[in-house]
Every structure is written in structure tokens, then in C-alpha cells.
Amino acid sequence: MVDHDKLQQAVRMILEAIGEDPEREGLADTPRRVAQMYEEMFSGLHEDPSEHLKTVFGEEHEELVLVKDIPFFSMCEHHLVPFFGKAHIAYIPKNGIVTGLSKLARTVDGIARRPQVQERMTKTLADVLMSTLDAKGAMVVLSAEHMCMAMRGIKKPGSKTVTTAVRGSFANDGEARAEVLQLIQTKEV
């Protein structure tokens, strides 16, 4: 799936282009290490994020399910530097069908491991929840720090970007949306 030889050649070319010697001791193995890292960081390109959510259970639960503070790392497609933060995933099951809590975190990881923008990641998570779980509603909130803003350009480390995606019953119910946002902000429930 990943062309390690091509990645290693590209890294060597980058090192040469910035004026480094890719043969010097500290860099000699860097092309191989970067190729391995990219295979891991972009593994979500080769998986269907809905697969994790296909494991479901009949629990006769049709109230809010919220998993918050799911850490994630992704890669900005504009500069190929990381952005990282926390995902908060909420859904309301339909017909009493729920998925495993770890499956929500695995879905976040699968979607995060691809080059992208935070807005698309947020939308994709909400859409996958709705389509795969056939949920009554879904709400996704991502808060992330972008290295493309922290270490280059405007150079504003510590600034956070927050994106939301609201689907189904949450889109029509302001009180339900407010409840999720309040629960996300609560340190201990």
C-alpha cells in the first residue's frame, strides 16, 4: 500500500534540497524512519472507518451516549505537519442499538490517520456515525492545536481550533446540543 522506496527517495531529496547531507551519521537512517512513520500516520487512508462501528449490541438504550476527551493526532494536508487535540463524540441510539465505546475511539483514530483539514475530519466522523449506526442524532466536537499555526506562519502556539458537526435530532434540538456542550465542558460528571 505504501511505497517505502519512493518515500525514502523523497526524504533524501528534501534533505538535499535544504542543504543537508543525507549520508551524515544522524541522517543516514532518517529516510527509512520517515517512511515507516508515514505508513503509520496515514494508515487511515487504507481502512474504512465505518468498520469499527459495525460491532453493535442490543441494549434498549435510546438516550445520549457521549465519549469525550478522545486524544487524536492528524496531519494537515496543506503543510504536512501535525494537528492534535481531543474529540468528543455523542450520539443517540435508534432502536436500542449501541456500539462499543472503544469503537468510537477507534473510529476517531482511523479517520485521523490521513492528510486532511479539521473541518473534514469533524464532518466525516458525524456522517459515519449517522450512516453506520443509523443513529437518531450525532454530534462531534473537535478541539485541536495546529502546528502549521504554531511553528510557522503566524506562529501562535497554544491557539485552538474548535469545529462541530451536528446531525439528526441534535440539529433540531437546541437543548440537546446545549446538554452535550455542557457535559463536554464539565470536568467530572
- Could you give the count of β-strands? 7
By secondary-structure content and strand pairing, the structural class works out as alpha+beta
Instruction: Give the count of helical stretches.
Output: 7
| Overall domain count | 2
Report strand order across the widest sheet. Answer: 5-2-3-6-7
Largest sheet: 5 strands, mixed
GO biological process, one term: one-carbon metabolic process
Enzyme class: hydrolase
Catalytic activity: GTP + H2O = 7,8-dihydroneopterin 3'-triphosphate + formate + H(+)
EC number: 3.5.4.16
Which descriptors would you attach to this protein?
189 residues; alpha+beta; GTP Cyclohydrolase I, Chain A, domain 1; GTP Cyclohydrolase I, domain 2; 2 domains; five-stranded mixed sheet; two-stranded antiparallel ribbon; 7 helices; 39% helix; elongated; one-carbon metabolism; zinc ion binding; GTP-binding; GTP cyclohydrolase I activity; GTP_CycHdrlase_I_CS
Structural features, described:
- The protein has helices spanning 4-17, 30-41, 101-112, 118-133, 147-150, 169-172, 174-185; strands at 56-58, 65-76, 82-92, 97-99, 115-116, 137-146, 161-168.
- It has 189 residues and is α+β, with helices and mostly antiparallel strands.
- The protein has 2 domains: 2-42, GTP Cyclohydrolase I, Chain A, domain 1, CATH 1.10.286.10; 50-183, GTP Cyclohydrolase I, domain 2.
- It has a 5-stranded mixed beta sheet. It has a two-stranded antiparallel ribbon with strand order 1-4.
- Strand 2 and strand 3 form a beta hairpin.
- The protein is elongated, with a radius of gyration of 20 Å.
- The mean pLDDT is 96.
